[in-house]
Specification:
Peptidoglycan synthesis regulatory factor (PBP3), Domain 2, 2 domains, five-stranded antiparallel beta sheet, 29% strand
Length: 381
Amino acid sequence: MRIFFLFFFLFFTETTLGNISFSSNVTNGIAIDYVSNTVIGEKNSDKKISPASMSKIMTAIIVFDQLKLKKMTINDHLEVPKNIRSRITKDDTKMFILPGDKISVDDLLKGLIVLSGIDAAITLAEGLAGSEQQFVDLMNKKAAEIGMNNTLFKNSSGVFDFEHFTTVKDISILSSYLIKNYGEFYGYFKEKKFLWVRTGGKPIQQYNRNVLLTDDNVDGIKTGNLKDSKYSIAATKKINNRRVIVVISGLPTMTSRADEVRRIFLQYFNRTELALIPYDNDLFRIDIWNGSVSSLNVRGSNKEGIYFIKNKGQKILKPRIEIEYETPTKIPIVKGEHIANAKVFNGRELIHIERLYAEKNVTEKNIFLKGWQNIKYSIWN
């Protein structure tokens, strides 16, 4: 493994980064700075919980994938399962769709996200995958793909099942993935109300249960409530170029849930700020052995450089970056592959780790040049 160093001199007040704190009402919680992808506070974040209606975030993502692949459009209509009423209890949140009716994907997504309708979730699942179980298989495949390592879905709506579980950390991963990859559809999550012009009855005006949306800077994401995990929420707030994601579970009431998130939002925006270290081509380039190129530029998830979070007024006296990667590198390398890490230190204190990705594909070198480079490697390494 090779390590390279780069020093920067910045001028702020010297302190250590303070974590976001959770109240005693919170059983499980996590707060993430979205831009730097930094955990700024957590409490039992890896402990299993019932995700409740936060499961519908994944349900929506599977539908969004089909829309992006143009396998369906929001104007397509899906048939409501004939047995829908037998699968929903009187206490379940529902969109009040009729068995056998045909509803547009657009209305079903609003019913799923804004109203949190279980009937909308089932209709989307069966209409897209043929059966709810086949749809759940897609949910679990996606969860594994994006790194939700402590999650198992058993249904599309989040109704209670002993084997249906997640963690607040995994829901934060899911929420970040949603915001990053589905900008064209993310507007569904900030809609405050939905007028459902239903078949065979008067239109119903229904409201989003996320009362935090009264703040114009809050644009999602999803609430949940079950007896075992109590009141939960994945919430996010964005001001200018800063965004925080908060996921909490175990709150006793809707009011305490909203108050807790507002308090964390206040801590985040009042106490912390983002700092930026721009990319330096000489540093953010790694050596390639036996490849079609001798070196490769690597970058993090942000185009501008490496963002890290710090307390307002914090002084970073002598920050440095260490680039770590295995050498010799394994060939081939695929563009976008995680190939190195950048570690940001304030003095001796590690304050941020950034994953770095290959900027282009690298193939193997021809056999003659490969032999010569191996000789050079053995001499100078």
